[in-house]
Structure formats: structure tokens, C-alpha cells
């Protein structure tokens, strides 16, 4: 759970790098996704590591969409893979 909170915090930091008018949408999107997966079912095929990897990849996609330097997500990558 601690790792998920660190990832969520880092995603929100990345949201601050987006254009001002898009920030509320992506902040809400991130929160909804983290809340939806807060309690994983033990029988679910989706592992936490897979979800963390998905969060990183989606963050890269959004950063690229708005021409934000991809290196901004280096800390997120470190958290997700660590």
C-alpha cells in the first residue's frame, strides 16, 4: 500500500506539469483509478506490479501528448520498478 501511495503522489506531481486547463481532469482520473484498485481481490489476475507498470506507461503517454519532457517521469519509473 505504501508503494501505491508513493506512485499516486508522483502521478499528481506529474499532473502539475500539464497545461493548467487539463490538470483537474487528469488529477480526477488518477484519483478514480487509484481508488478503484485500492483493494485488490486475491483472486484477481491483475497484480499490483502490473498496475504500477500501467500507471507509469499511461503517465508517459499523457506527458508525450502534451509535449512534456519524458524525463519528468524518471522518479515514477524508479518507484514503479523498485
Automatic annotation (TrEMBL):
The lineage of its organism: Eukaryota, Viridiplantae, Streptophyta, Embryophyta, Tracheophyta. It comes from Linum trigynum. This is LYR motif-containing protein At3g19508. InterPro entries: Complex1_LYR_LYRM9. Belongs to the complex I LYR family. LYRM9 subfamily.
Amino acid at each position: 500500500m505504501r508503494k501505491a501511495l508513493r506512485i499516486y503522489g508522483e502521478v499528481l506531481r506529474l499532473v502539475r506539469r500539464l497545461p493548467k486547463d487539463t490538470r483537474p481532469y487528469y488529477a480526477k482520473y488518477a484519483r478514480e483509478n487509484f481508488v478503484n484498485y485500492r483493494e485488490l481481490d486475491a483472486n484477481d489476475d491483475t497484480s499490483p506490479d502490473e498496475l504500477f507498470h500501467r500507471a507509469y506507461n499511461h503517465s508517459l503517454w499523457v506527458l508525450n501528448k502534451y509535449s512534456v519532457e519524458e524525463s519528468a517521469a524518471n522518479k515514477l519509473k524508479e518507484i514503479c520498478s523498485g
